[in-house]
C-alpha cells in the first residue's frame, strides 16, 4: 500500500529536518538505506534535478509496492549491511549523502501476520526479510535460558531477565511457543501490570533485534559509510531507542562503532574521519508527535565526512 492510500505504509518521521540536514544538491547522488514507504526518498527526489540519483535499500519485499515511478530512483532489495557492495555492483563508488530511518515501520506493526506487535495475535516471526533467516519462534524455543536472558538484557534493557527466561522455558517445555499471544501468555507471571505495555515493548524489541541482527547491520552500514561518502558528504540517521542512538552518537563523534576514542595525531589532535553537524539530537515537534504518536521516541543526528586537509 502506498502513501496516498487511506492507511499509509509508514508516516515518515522528521521528514523536513532530516532531508534538510542531508543538504541535497540537485546533481548529487544519495542513498536511502531504509526505503520503507518511500517518504524520505520522495522528499529527496523532489530536491534533485534531472542529473541527480537516489538509491533506496530495503530487504522487505512488501516495500516494492511503494517504488516511485522515477528514472532517477534505483530500488535495491537488500539489507543495508551490504550497502557498499550493492552500490559498487551498480557502478557507484561515491555518494554525496546517506540517510537512514531505523526501527520498524508502521506497516510492520499493523500487519498482523508479521508478528512484530504484541497487540495482534500472529505467528511469532519478526523477520524483516521473510525469504531467509531465523524467526522469533526459533529464538524463543531454541535458545538456552542463559542466552535468552542475555538477549533480553542486552537488546531490551530489561531487569530480572533470568526470571523472564525461566517463564519462557517453562512454557515451551509444555508446548512450543509459536504465536505472539502464546509468548505474551508465557511471560504473564513476570509481567508488571502497571508497566505491561512498556515491558512487552522491550521484550518484543529485544527479540526483533536478535532475529534481524540489527545492531550488527547498523555498525556495518556506519563503517561502510566512511568508504562510500565523498569528503564533505552527509550522514543522517534517525534512531528510536538508546542502543541505536548510542552507537550512532559514538560513530559520529569518533568514526568508531565500538565506543572507543577517535584517533589522534603525533601532536595529540583528534583526527576523526567524521564530525557531527548536530550538536545534540533533534527531536520531533509537539505537533508532529500529536500527528504521529510513533515519532515520540525518534532522535535525529547528522554528521559530515571530513576532508583529508581537515584531518591533517
Radius of gyration: 20 Å
What is the helical fraction, as a range of percent?
25-40%
Order of helices and strands: HEHEEHEHHHHHHHEHEHE
Largest sheet: 7 strands, mixed
Principal-axis shape: globular
Oligomeric state of the chains present here: single chain
Uncertain regions spanning at least 5 consecutive residues:
1-6
What is the highest CATH level, the class of the largest domain? Alpha Beta
Number of helices: 12
What portion of residues belong to β-strands?
Answer: 5-15%
Q: CATH architecture of the largest domain, please? A: 3-Layer(aba) Sandwich
- Derived from helix and strand composition plus strand pairing, the structural class reads alpha/beta
- Can you tell me the number of structural domains? 2
CATH topology of the largest domain: Rossmann fold
- Integer average pLDDT: 92
Quote the distance from N terminus to C terminus.
Answer: 50 Å
**Spatial sequence of strands, sheet with the most strands:** 3-2-1-4-5-7-6
Number of strands: 7
CATH homology superfamily name of the largest domain: Vaccinia Virus protein VP39
Amino acid at each position: 500500500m502506498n502513501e496516498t492510500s487511506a492507511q499509509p505504509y509508514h508516516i515518515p518521521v522528521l521528514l523536513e529536518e532530516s532531508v534538510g540536514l542531508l543538504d541535497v544538491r540537485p546533481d548529487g547522488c544519495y542513498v536511502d538505506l531504509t526505503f520503507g514507504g518511500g517518504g524520505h526518498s520522495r522528499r529527496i527526489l523532489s530536491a534533485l534535478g534531472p542529473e541527480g540519483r537516489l538509491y533506496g535499500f530495503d530487504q522487505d519485499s512488501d516495500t516494492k509496492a511503494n517504488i516511485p515511478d522515477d528514472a532517477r530512483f534505483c530500488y535495491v532489495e537488500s539489507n543495508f549491511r551490504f550497502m557498499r557492495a550493492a552500490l559498487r555492483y551498480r557502478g557507484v563508488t561515491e555518494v554525496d549523502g546517506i540517510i537512514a530511518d531505523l526501527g520498524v515501520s508502521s506497516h510492520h506493526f499493523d500487519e498482523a501476520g508479521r508478528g512484530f506487535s504484541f497487540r495482534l495475535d500472529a505467528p511469532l516471526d519478526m523477520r524483516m526479510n521473510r525469504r531467509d533467516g531465523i524467526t522469533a519462534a526459533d529464538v524463543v524455543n531454541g535458545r538456552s535460558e542463559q542466552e535468552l536472558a542475555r538477549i533480553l538484557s542486552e537488546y531490551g534493557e530489561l531487569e530480572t531477565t533470568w526470571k523472564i527466561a525461566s517463564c519462557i522455558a517453562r512454557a515451551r517445555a509444555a508446548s512450543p511457543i509459536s504465536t505472539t499471544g502464546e509468548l505474551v501468555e508465557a511471560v504473564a507471571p513476570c509481567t508488571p501490570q502497571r508497566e505491561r505495555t512498556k515491558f512487552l515493548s522491550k521484550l518484543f524489541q529485544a527479540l526483533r533485534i536478535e532475529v534481524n541482527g540489527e545492531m550488527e547491520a547498523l555498525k556495518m552500514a556506519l563503517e561502510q559509510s566512511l568508504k562510500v561518502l565523498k569528503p564533505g558528504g552527509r550522514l543522517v540517521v534517525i534512531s528510536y531507542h538508546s542502543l541505536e542512538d548510542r552507537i550512532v552518537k559514538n560513530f559520529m563523534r569518533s568514526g568508531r562503532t565500538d565506543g572507543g576514542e577517535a584517533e589522534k595525531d603525533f601532536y595529540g589532535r583528534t583526527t576523526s574521519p567524521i564530525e557531527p553537524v548536530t550538536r545534540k539530537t533533534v527531536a520531533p515537534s509537539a505537533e508532529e508527535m500529536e500527528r504521529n504518536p510513533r515519532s515520540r521516541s525518534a532522535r535525529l543526528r547528522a554528521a559530515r565526512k571530513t576532508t583529508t586537509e581537515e584531518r591533517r
